[in-house]
Specification:
alpha+beta, three-stranded antiparallel β-sheet, two-stranded parallel sheet, 10 helices
Length: 235
């Protein structure tokens, strides 16, 4: 399939409302490259990650997410001694609130900021909007794209009414496609590291404390998890 340019049809690198923007922006916001385009004419492709690995990814590179955390405790859905040591917990009442509702997180989506109860709520809300949408869209698990790139990309092309230019010429980039100078410091270094990270059940939850894992299991939308075939790890 061709990459979009002004003289041809093809795939644009982002939807008119912006690739990171929540779905609520679809009818109210245009990214710079989306000016003058009708968002109703686009079939969006949304890629999501297993929430447990996504939370750890956010710890490595927070992008525009902001929440009180320290590298010694991240993901930090509920506070522990590390958070207390760094004065993220004000008093006993504040701790009770955080234990019940989780540590809040805010994510800036130009031009506004969205606020979530905790990291699990952020995953539920952003992805859930696409899951519940009433218009055609493609929802793809990142792990399937990583492990079965040829099959997945071929089906995407067919869905759009096209075919791969050369189905035998799919190549994996061995190094990271995201460069630190573009705001991606902390990203995995390449294909092999990504395979080790996303195919290992231990790595999936390696940074979670037992308490955070219990909270995540309780807070993540289990209907979505089941529909996407993401198994709940043991506490």
């Amino acid at each position: 399939m061709a990459k979009y340019d002004k003289n041809t049809h093809g795939l644009r690198w982002q939807v008119p409302w912006g690739k990171h923007s929540p779905l609520s922006y679809r009818a109210s916001h245009k990214a710079k490259q989306g000016m003058g385009l009708n968002e109703l004419n686009f079939l969006a492709v949304m890629v999501l990650k297993d929430p447990y690995t996504w939370m750890q990814s956010l710890c490595r590179n927070s992008y525009t997410a902001r929440w009180k955390h320290h590298k010694k405790h991240c993901p930090n859905l509920i506070p522990n001694d590390v958070d207390k040591e760094h004065h993220y917990v004000r008093d006993d009442n504040h701790e009770k609130d955080l234990q019940h509702n989780g540590i809040p997180i805010s994510i800036y989506y130009n031009p506004n900021t969205s606020h979530y109860a905790n990291m699990a709520d952020a995953w539920n809300t952003w992805n859930g909007a696409y899951m519940d949408a009433d218009f055609p869209r493609l929802i793809i698990r990142f792990e399937d794209l990583l492990l079965h790139a040829k099959a997945v990309i071929t089906e995407i092309c067919r869905c759009y009414g096209g075919t791969l230019v050369n189905e035998t010429h799919i190549q994996y980039i061995a190094t990271s496609a995201k460069k630190p100078e573009h705001g991606h410091s902390g990203a995995t270094s390449g294909f092999v590291e990504a395979l080790l990270l996303y195919t290992n059940s231990t790595n999936r939850i390696k940074s979670f404390t037992g308490e955070d894992l219990i909270f995540a299991n309780k807070s993540l939308n289990q209907t979505m998890m089941t529909l996407l075939s993401y198994a709940q790890p043991s506490n």
